[in-house]
Amino acid sequence: MSPAFPPTRRERRRGLAGALCLAMLAAALPAAPVRAELPDAIARLKPSIVLVGYFRSTDSPRFRFSGTGFAVGDGGTVATNAHVLQPADVVGDASLVVQVPGGGTTWQARPAKVLEIDRAHDLALLRIEGAPLPAVALRNSDTVREGQSAAFMGFPIGGMLGFAPVTHRATVSSIASVSLPAPTGQQLTARLIRGAREGNFDIFQLDGTAYPGNSGGPLFDPANGEVIGVVNMTLLKNTREAALSQPSGISYAIPANFVIQLLGQRRPAE
After folding, report:
1. Which residue range is the domain that position 80 belongs to?
2. Is 103 helix (H, G, I), strand (E, B) or coil?
3. For residue 171, what are the contacts with CB-CB under 8 A and spacing of at least 6?
4. Which of 41, 80, 91, 265 would bridge 225 by S-S if both were Cys, CB 3.0 to 4.6 A apart?
5. How many CA atoms lie within 13 Å of 104's alpha carbon, on the beta-carbon side?
6. What one-character DSSP code corresponds to residue 74?
7. Rounded (5°) CA angle 242-245-249
């Protein structure tokens, strides 16, 4: 083994000069942007997530959960799926109610009314009474690309798991043109997919599993919490019950641009 010799004065000067150059180069480079992680996005969105359902004092339970929603616009408006709203002959004299976060694990019931309905895209806007909620940031959904990461939040299987928002990761596996089945967007079968007319509108296919109760919840970018869509339906193998015992792992979401359009034409709050 060759003996080790201490560096010469010239070598030390070269080393110091190199270190100084690296330090100057690092200072000149722009700092990398700090991207929020999924936990930060969840914390930002949870105060905007609500329960949509119907209240009747003689029922047990008095509140019947129907779907998920989230605050948009001025915070006094809630976006959800149109099929979350039940027909009048089904609800009878029950009142439309939105339960908003009340702090901790509590929820506060607020009367709601329908502002706008877009049945072609299975979307609805509701107006809630009381103080506004933190509104989500809606992103131009034309920027969404196949293969990008996403997440969605809602109340899968309704109250069976307790009324606490649940988040699932997903990937936008496809952006395809489909038409929604009538009269609801709750169940999409392979037959209806094959029979969909071309040239309707693009919808996001996800590889995450949504369940009954997720309908109307936000699909969002896990990096910054921006909402890019509204969870709409799950591909069912057979029946609604099969979605619980044998989930297909394929779900769909309506692009957020249709929510933005609906907000643009809503009636002013009274």
Report:
1. 39-128
2. coil
3. 147, 148, 149, 150, 206, 207, 208
4. 41
5. 2
6. T
7. 80
